[in-house]
Task: structure prediction
Amino acid sequence: MRRRDFVTAAAGTAAAAPLITARPSMVGSSDVIRLREGLSDLVQLDQSQGGHGELEQLALSGAKRTLELRDQAATQRIRRRLFAIAADYTGIAAWSALDAHRLDHAQTRLARALHLAGMARDPVALFQVWNMYAMLCRQRHDFHQAADATDAALATTITRRDPMFASLAHARAAINHTHLRDRPAALRALGRAEDALGRAEGSNLARPNWIAFYGPGELSAITAVVMNATGDPDQAEAASHQALARIPDALRRNRAMATTQLALAQLRQGDIGQACATADTVFGLLPDQALPGRLRSRLDHFQRALTTSAPGSKPSRQWSDRYRLERSRT
Result:
């Protein structure tokens, strides 16, 4: 190109540049995909480390960045998808607070996530919020409100379209019925959860990666919770072994929760030494990190039951000393 032509072309480009940069770029499907990849990273962080403050703040930052793009959405459909992604990020923040047993934080995040899910008109996001709200209510021992939240999750349209979500909601309902001392209803709910999971496993529906934790292993773990609470420790032990055989190794926090249920079932059958040895393995599943608050709550429950059952035994004293040491590191 001749120098004069190059200078002319460059001048024309420079003159046009303010007009191009003045217009905000439109946010489209590729941007939505990129934002969802960020969600996947946070889900993996939760699965490996459990809920903690850094995860909560990362999720809130993701929601903030997503909402900053909504006015640049190319279409109204993209705008709604941005609201849904922001709801998912906020849901992860809520879950992190819930898993860390920071209940007031969790409630604030859930209220925000519910608003965003409503703006998005996204049934999956709505399901996720109601599912977590039921867990929050159970941690606060408000079991009737937990049942109401589970009913709301079951009423979302995604439970009719995808039996995987229906199965999870029925499993949560089983725990609610257990706390309300309605064992027959709890067993019926477990049966519905198993039936729905059987239908879900034969489907190839696209699902968000946060629900990947749920499957036969997690349902067995929930069954163990129900059986321990309803006075069937032998069945709780069998269900716990099934859970640990099925829960992937990568889901370390979930395996730790299931291991704690196994220890409790063994304790309630009078096997003090084995129960303490099983509970001791929990610490090896999450080495060099603080125990998530929800797991600490489960271990506290085991400790109280152990103190009641065998306060002076050697295994009890040894495990209690180990637990106090591990608690002091959190």
The two ends are 68 Å apart (CA to CA). DSSP finds 17 helices and no strands in the chain. The mean pLDDT is 86. Residues 76-99 form the longest helix (24 residues).
